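Section handout, structural biology tutorial.
Before the tutorial, make sure you can parse a SMILES string by hand: atoms, branches in parentheses, ring closures as digits. In the record below the ligand is L74YYOSM, and the chain has 700 residues. In the tutorial you will relate the predicted C-alpha cells back to the input. Do not try to memorize them.
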Amino acid sequence: MAKGRTEMEVGSDGVAVIYVANPPVNALSIDVLFSLKGHYEEALRRNDVKAIVLTGSGRSFSAGLDISAFADIRKPEQLKDHCILIESMTDIFEDAGKPSVAAIDGPALGGGLELSMVCQARISTPNAQLGLTELQFGVIPGFGGTQRLPRLVGLTKALEMMMLSKPINAEEAHELGLVDAVVSPNDLLNDARRWALDICESKRPWVRALYKTDKLESPEVAREILNSARVLSRKQAANLQHPLVCIDAVEEGIVSGPRAGLRKQVPGITDLGLTPRKVSKVAIVGCGLMGSGIATALILSHYPVILKEVDEKSLNAGIDRIKENLLSRVRKGKMTKEKYEKTLSLLTGVLDYEKFKTVDLAIEAVVENVKLKQQIFAELEQHCPSHCILATNTSTIDLNLIGEKTNSQERIVGTHFFAPAHIMPLLEIVRTPRASLQAVVTLLDVGKKIKKTPIVVGNCTGFAVYRMFFPYTQAALLLVDHGMDVYKIDQACTEFGMSIGPFRMTDLVGFGVALATGMQFLENFPELVYKSMLIPLMVEDKRTGEASQKGFYRYEGKRKASPDPEIMNYVNESRRIAGATPDPELLKLDNSAIAEMVFFPVINEACRVLGEGIAFKASDLDIASIFGMGFPPYRGGIMHWADSIGARRICTMLSEWEMKYDQFFKPCSHLLERAGAGLPLSASATMMMNQAKTKILGGC
Ligand SMILES: C[C@@H](O)CC(=O)SCCNC(=O)CCNC(=O)[C@H](O)C(C)(C)COP(=O)(O)OP(=O)(O)OC[C@H]1O[C@@H](n2cnc3c(N)ncnc32)[C@H](O)[C@@H]1OP(=O)(O)O
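Predicted structure of the complex:
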C-alpha cells in the first residue's frame, strides 16, 4: 500500500502545482519521492506547462525524509532507491528547462527544506519553520543540503543550523536569503505562481543554489570556519562521527565543487547504486564516416540499429561503408560470411523518424553545424521515448548549445568516438552538470558492451583528448617559428614513441580540420593558443595535407610521405609575420629535449583539464592519451609519464620557455600548486589541503 503520493494540477496560467500529500506532515517516503519524480518529469514534458510550484498539502510543506522508514534505509537495497532520487533532485529539478518555486507554509525540515532549495526560489508564510535537522537522527542532510544551504545563507549560519539541528523562522530566513519573500497564507499559492512565471519571463533571476558562490567565504576563511566547527563538534559529542562527516561533505563542495560535495554525500558515479538501464535498440542520425563507424561498432556487439539519413543516396553510401567495414573483417578471416549476413541484418536504414519510437539511445553523428544539431535534437525529443538517452558525437561543440531547443538537458550526453569509430578503442562520455548520472551509467555500460574503453569527461571545447593534445601541434609550430626544422620535430616525436609526429598527423587529418579546430580553441581559450600563420599560408596555396598530395610533406602514390623543400618559403614567411628570430640554442637540442618542448605543454593542458574537473581522474587522462591520441603505452600515459619526471622540473622548464619564447608555455595553477607542494599531478585538492594543514599544524 503506497505511503503518500504527490498530486498535480496544471492551471490556465501554465503553472503546474505539485502537492506533496502524505499527512500529517508530508514526510518524504519512497512512494512520495518516486511520485514526485514522475510528476516533475510529466510537467517538464507537457507543452502546456511553463513553470512549476511545489508545495505541501495541509499546514505543512514537508517534515523531511520519512523517519519511520529509517530502519529500512540502513539496508543497502533501500539506499539504492534513495540514491537514485537524490540524483534526481539535482538533475531533473534544479537543472530542468522550466523554473520551479517552493511555496512553504509550516515546517520545511530536513529533506523538506532540501527539496525547496532545489527550486529556483522559495516563498513562505510567517508560520514557516526551516531547518536541516537531520543530525538529531544520526544522519547527515542527504538531498544536497550540505551544498545548497551554505551557498544560500553563508557557511557560518549553515553550519550552525546543521550542527544544532535548529530551525529558523520565516523572518530570519528572509533576512538570510533562504526565502525570497514572506506572504500571507491566503496569498502564498498565487504569489508563488506569479514568481515562477516571472522567472520564465526573465523578470526575476533564475537561480540555481548549487552554483551560487556570492555567499561563500574564501577557501582560507572557509577552512578556518570548518575547522572551528570540527573542534566544537568534538567537544560537544566526541564519540559522534556523523557531524564530522557532514562538515567533510560541506568542505568537499567548497574545495572541489558542489557536485563533488554531492557525491561526497553519495560517493561516486558508478557506486551510487545506480544500475544501467537496458538499451535494446539504438538509432543513429547521420551515416558519414563517423555514423557508419558507430553503427558498425554497435551491430558487431549485437545491438539492432536504426540508421537515418536525409536521402536515399546518402543512406546507401553509409550502408555501403558499413558493409565494407564488415567485409574487411571477412577478408581478414575475423568473420564468417554467415556472421556477416547476420550482423548486417541488425541494420535498418530509414529516411524518417517513424521507427525512433522504440529506441533507448539515439546518437547524432552529423557535421559540426550547431543549427543542424539543434534541429535534430528538437526532432529527437519529439520522436524518441521520454526515457531515451539523446547523445551527440560532436568533438568540439558545447552540449548545452546543442540541446538549447529542447527541454531534455538531463538526458543529453556526449558520446565522442574517435575515427575509425569501429576500431579506435576510446569513447569519451561527455556530461554537463545537467546530465543525469543514470544516463552516464547507462552509457558506460553500452561503451563496455561495444568493447570500448569509456571515460567520463566534462563539457568544454575539445573535451579531454582534443583539449589536452591541442598544444601538441601548437608547440611544434612555435618551435618552427623559432628556427627548428619541421622534419626534425616529427622525427623527435616518433623517436619518443608516437606513431607519427605533429606535422605528419596534421597532413593526415587535413588542414581544414586543423584550422576549424584552431578557430574553436582560439574562440574559447584565446590565452592558450599560439597563433602561427604557417598553416593558413599553406592553405592559401591549396596545400591542405595528404588529400591534396601536398602539405608539410609531398605525397607520391598511396600515403608515401617525403619531405618537401618547398615548405621553407612558407616557414620563412611565417617567421617574418611572427617576428620570431631563429634561436641558435634551440638548434643544439637533441631529440629528447625537443620531445619535452612538445609534450610539456600537453602535460600543462592535461593539468588544466584535471583542475577544471573536465576529467575526474588523472588515470582517465592516461587512458585518453594512449587510446585517443596514440601516446606511447609503455610510458604509462601522459600523467604517469609526467609524474616520472616530476612536477617541479616540468614547471621550471615551462617557466623558462615562457620567459624566453611565449606565454603559451605558462604553467597552470594545478601544476604550480603540485610542484610547490612536491605532490604528484594526480593529487586531489583535498590531498593538497591536508598536506598544507599538516605543515601548518606541525605534522600532528
Ligand atoms: C533526506 C535527509 O536529509 C533526511 C531527513 O530529512 S531526516 C528528517 C528531518 N526531519 C525532521 O527533523 C522533522 C521531524 N519532525 C518534527 O520536527 C515535528 O514532527 C514537526 C515539526 C514536523 C511537527 O511537529 P508537531 O506538529 O508537534 O507534530 P508531531 O511532532 O507530534 O508529529 C506528528 C506526527 O508526524 C510524525 N512525523 C513527524 N516528522 C516525521 C518524519 N520526518 N517522518 C515520518 N513521520 C514524521 C510524528 O511521528 C507524528 O506521528 P504520530 O504517529 O502522530 O506519532
